Amino acid sequence: MPETNRIEFKEKLTKEIDLEKEVIAFLNYNEGGFIYIGIDKTGTVVGVEDIDGDMLKIKDRLKTNIIPSCMGLFDISSEEKDDKDIIKITVASGSEKPYYKRKYGMSEKGAYIRNGTAADPMPQKLIDELFAKRTKTSIGKIRSSRQDLTFEQLKIYYEGKGITLNKNFAKNLELLTEKGEYNYVAYLMADENGTSIKLAKYNGLTRVDLAENPDFGYESLIKATKQVLDKIELENRSDTSITSTERIDKRPWSSIALREAILNAFVHNDYTTEVPPKFEIFDDRIEITSTGGLPNGLSKDEFFEGFSVPRNKELMRIYKDLGLVEQLGSGVPRILEYYGRECFKFSENFLRMTFPKAILEKPHQLANTQLGNTQLGEQVVDFKAKQKLVLTELQYDFGTISERRKASTKENINLLHENFESITTYFMEDFGITSGKLRESFGKVSGKKLPNQILTLELIIIYPEITAEEIGSILGVTERSVQTYIKKLREENFIEREGGRKEGVWLLKKQKL
């Protein structure tokens, strides 16, 4: 992987490395970009010794030294490459160009733009042109019509993530205008506001026969988001078909795609129009409509490829803090793993996503038709094409990682034991992970008494993004013990890791037969 117009390498993080210049250049570049710390200019991976410390330093430098604020416009994550830890900084194209160094102001010495593989000083003429075009009506600049706002709901959600909002939270979360008054972001996050979030359910295929019309508005946008997610999840109940040999339960829509679409609508809606996103359920489809077409300068192809130009960087930052959204630009590509581009309809002022109702085939049937006959031998089976096909129904039965952590250890272990046979039948055997193979690696295997290595493997199958600490919490063992189980699973070639410790996922490996 060489350096390109969107990729920059830095061997290590030091005070002498002008990281701000590189980030500013990508913020001012229409496509954004990626910076890797721990890779030298030749592309050789040298690694980073203090991952957590360097990630904190990077966040502090970018927060402090770049104007306008770029919070919500970058992600910092760790990855593992060539058995070494590196840092990946994902930078979105900003909507308030030009960005520049606080120290030097809006000048050629302070503003940069990506040119090939270099970060070049931005000509003063371009600086002036971009400043003249800068959006003056972003929700961070609009004064809230109400200034008597409270944020108890928001504080509770942050506390749930182990973060306590201090007295400076309004400034830190960019809820204030330049004059120190609450802005429209604060209005949306407040316990009470005038924003109505409508969800309509119709009988039939048209908008004639309205069956339900709950309103989840007039409260913190975070709470409204969670309520819409819960309602859509409830509507996405499994459909059941019974054949001569078995009962098959399948959901009519992909839970993963719907979640991404709902969050995309909330985070990227153009609230300056005071028109909130809309959610509609029909007998044959779900429609999600958000206000605002494509962001300025972003083409449809760039949109589908995951190029990120956040319309509301303040909302993006809060939703990311609360674990509702993940990496910048990951939502649309994730939707496209389940639905085609034709599900997206663009207009000048709106974006509508339409998800047709469908019953999926059995996972092993899809594996045969979509993956073809995989070559025998040790290999990684495509995670996107196979593993995700069964995640929706498994996660429906098991709930979220958070829910499993709240349950008792006994309840979790019983649930894993109860589902072992079905997971083996419908999933493990497609990878050659048979009872015989498990017995060969871990000794006697029985659905009534499974070793922790296999329980760990089950959790990895159900939650590919799960961490060792979360597995330990669910199984009631220490993180160090889980690391031992994972080491054994890797040594026996059951799993491998794609990406870093915090942002990566687990992949199953096809076994030799």
UniProtKB/TrEMBL annotation:
InterPro entries: RecG_C_sf, Schlafen_AlbA_2_dom, Schlafen_AlbA_2_dom_sf, WH-like_DNA-bd_sf, WH_DNA-bd_sf. Residues 3-122 form the Schlafen AlbA-2 domain. Pfam families: HATPase_c_4 (PF13749), SLFN_AlbA_2 (PF04326). It comes from the Bacteria. Gene3D superfamilies: 3.30.565.60, Schlafen, AAA domain, Winged helix-like DNA-binding domain superfamily/Winged helix DNA-binding domain. This is Transcriptional regulator. It comes from Brumimicrobium oceani. The lineage of its organism: Bacteria, Pseudomonadati, Bacteroidota, Flavobacteriia, Flavobacteriales.
